[in-house]
Specification:
This is Trafficking protein particle complex subunit 2-like protein. InterPro entries: Longin-like_dom_sf, Sedlin, TRAPPC2L. Belongs to the TRAPP small subunits family. Sedlin subfamily. It holds the Pfam family Sedlin_N. The chain has three helices and five strands. It has about 140 residues and is α+β, with helices and mostly antiparallel strands. It has one domain: Beta-Lactamase (2-Layer Sandwich), CATH 3.30.450.70. A five-stranded antiparallel sheet has the order 2-1-5-4-3, sandwiched between helices. Strand 1 and strand 2 form a beta hairpin. Helix 2 packs antiparallel against helix 3. The longest helix is centred in the first third of the chain and has 22 residues. The termini are close together.
Length: about 140
C-alpha cells in the first residue's frame, strides 16, 4: 500500500510518499506519477461542477492487475493518491473516502503550523503516525 501527497500544479512534485512494504517503493512511485494524468483528466472532465464542492474525492482512478489507485484533490489543487492491493476486497468506497478525509485533516493541521512553508516536503511525526495507522488498516 502507498499514500502520496503531490504538490499543486504545475510542479506536481511529491510532498510526502510512504509505502508499505518498502521493497516495491520504486514501482509505487511510478504508479503515483502515472496516476497524476488520470487525476488531471478527471478534474478537467468535471469542470466547474467541482468548484462548488467542498471535497474533491475522485474515487477509483484506475485498477491494475495488482493494485487499485484512488485519488483526492484539495481546494488548493494538492493531490492525495492512495494505492491499495487489489486482493483487498474488504475496503469499501466510503472507507477510502473517510481515509482521504483523515489525510486531508492531517494535511490541514500541517498547513496551520507557522513553521511549515507551503511547498516543502512534509516532515511531521504526527502525520507519519496517522498515515502508518491508516496503512495498517489497509494492509
Amino acid at each position: 500500500a502507498l499514500v502520496g501527497v503531490i504538490s499543486f500544479p504545475p510542479q506536481n512534485y511529491p510532498l510526502y510518499i510512504r509505502s508499505i512494504p518498502t521493497e516495491n517503493e520504486l514501482k509505487f512511485h511510478y504508479t503515483v506519477h502515472t496516476s497524476l494524468d488520470v487525476v488531471d483528466e478527471k478534474i478537467s472532465a468535471m469542470g466547474k461542477a467541482l468548484v462548488d464542492q467542498r471535497e474533491l474525492y475522485l474515487g477509483l482512478l484506475y485498477p491494475t492487475e495488482d493494485y487499485k489507485v484512488y485519488g483526492y484533490v484539495t481546494n488548493s489543487k494538492v493531490k492525495f493518491v492512495m494505492v491499495v492491493d487489489s486482493s483487498n476486497t474488504a475496503l469499501r468506497d466510503n472507507e477510502i473516502r473517510s481515509m482521504f478525509r483523515k489525510l486531508h485533516n492531517s494535511y490541514t493541521d500541517i498547513m496551520c503550523n507557522p513553521f511549515y512553508n507551503p511547498g516543502d516536503r512534509i516532515h511531521s511525526r504526527a502525520f507519519d503516525t496517522m498515515v502508518n495507522s491508516m496503512m495498517m488498516q489497509v494492509c
